[in-house]
Design brief:
The complex is a heterodimer of chains A (72) and B (192).
Chain A: H1 3-14, H2 20-32, H3 34-54, H4 61-71
Helix pairs in contact in A: 1-2, 1-3, 2-3
Chain B: H1 4-15, H2 18-29, H3 32-48, H4 59-74, H5 93-99, H6 105-110, H7 114-122, H8 126-137, H9 142-149, H10 153-177
Classes of the chains: A mainly alpha (72), B mainly alpha (192).
The complex binds zinc ion.
Zinc ion binds at residues 3, 6, 29, 33, 35-36 of chain A.
């Protein structure tokens, strides 16, 4: 696999959306290519950052209790 | 009308997805009170249309779809096409940082506060924001996201791609403004 092909598949690799065969091809390329590996780790880091920044918001307990009451 | 026990079991299962719905509503409305109203209305509607939910399918996706449809009906008057993303062109933060000598590039990400990331997500147009919420924050597959939003998988991929470009641009601008990155060469990554 060439670096350009790896780059086009990186989003889907990070999102776990490639087929097993495609993912393995990307993985093999990454293991032999420090540049693409760096890029991959950056994208993975960015995705984690977005997740952890946004998922600390949780529903207030009083709201949860109110809903439970309302729905039962 | 469902049996009381079945109704309770359904409500209990539905409530296990409350944080996902609330977070989604909060990011869509930018207002805790509006988010609670929206989520409450979504749950009441879900209970009313309980029979249309097929047991064993993805309840989280089903509930999210109800919530976001209510959002678009109520808050946006269904004028989805009015909201589009400015074309930022191809913006790849990783390459930008590498070109400016910020190595390792990931150190820059470590310096960006969570609140700034949330601000950057909030600045995305809602149609793009909801894809980021589903795929990046809630971990939906492209297929589940596509079903939730009622669009083809290709649309999910293109919205996600553009949303990530915009997000990276916003984070880069923030990194420059706050001195984490010095645009045009020298890069300083201060220790906290
Ligand atoms: Zn490569």
């Amino acid at each position: 696999m060439r670096c350009e092909e790896c780059a086009t598949k990186l989003d889907r690799y990070v999102d776990r959306e490639l087929t097993n065969t495609e993912a393995l091809e990307v993985q093999l390329h990454l293991e032999g290519c420090p540049d693409c590996m760096d890029n991959y780790e950056f994208q993975e880091h960015l995705k984690r950052l977005v997740k952890h920044s946004c998922d600390c918001d949780t529903a207030p307990k009083a709201f949860r209790d109110k809903l439970r009451q309302m729905l039962s | 009308m469902a049996e009381p026990a079945a109704k309770t079991a359904f409500a209990e299962e539905a409530l296990t997805h409350l944080d996902t719905l609330y977070r989604g509503a909060l990011r869509l409305t930018h207002d805790p009170d509006a988010a609670q109203d929206l989520v409450q209305e979504a749950y009441l509607r879900a209970l009313r249309y309980q029979h249309s939910y097929q047991a064993g399918t993805n309840m989280k996706a089903w509930l999210f779809a109800i919530m976001r449809n209510l959002f678009w009906d109520r808050f946006k008057g269904s004028r989805k096409e009015d909201v589009s993303l400015d074309d930022v062109g191809e913006f790849v933060l990783y390459e930008k940082l590498r070109d400016e000598g910020a190595r390792p590039e990931s150190d820059v990400l470590d310096k960006i506060a969570a609140s700034e990331v949330v601000t950057a997500v909030d600045k995305l147009p809602p149609l793009h924001r909801e894809v980021v919420l589903l795929v990046d924050v809630e971990g939906f597959s492209y297929k589940d996201a596509a079903e939730t939003l009622g669009v083809p998988i290709g649309t999910i991929m293109s919205r996600l791609h553009r949303a990530r470009q915009q997000l990276q641009k916003s984070l880069y601008d923030y990194a420059v403004e706050s001195g984490i990155v010095h645009s045009g060469g020298m890069t300083q990554v201060p220790q906290q």
